Sequence to fold (128 residues):
Amino acid sequence: MCPCHSQIAYAECCKPFHDRTRLPENASLLMRSRYSAYALGLVDYIIQTTHPTNPLFTKSPLEIRKEIFYFCEETQFTGLEILNFTDGETKAYVTFVAHLIQGGKKIRFTEKSLFLKQEKQWLYAQKC
Ligand SMILES: [Zn+2]
Fold:
């Protein structure tokens, strides 16, 4: 099963996005693929699908890699619910609940995220 908790096999869900053989057709699919990338520790995919305007890029490339790597290492990604998805030409919003376990503690957080389309690719811009 895919680590984005879609109940679909990984090979038919987020893997083609992670392999870069397919681009997510919309921001909701990109959102799912980023969640499963965190679950699998695919640091490059997280970086490559983050919009250049995201505050993450105020840090050095090494700091960014370390931060994402340790977040992935220390976290279990136990569930994802997409609550709302507002699609658009070049701008889209996804509201989701992410279920995580960190240090044996269950965490649940809700975020509304902004996604921007750049050269045919949806990218995560920032939380709203
Ligand atoms: Zn998936």
Notes: The chain has one domain: 10-127.
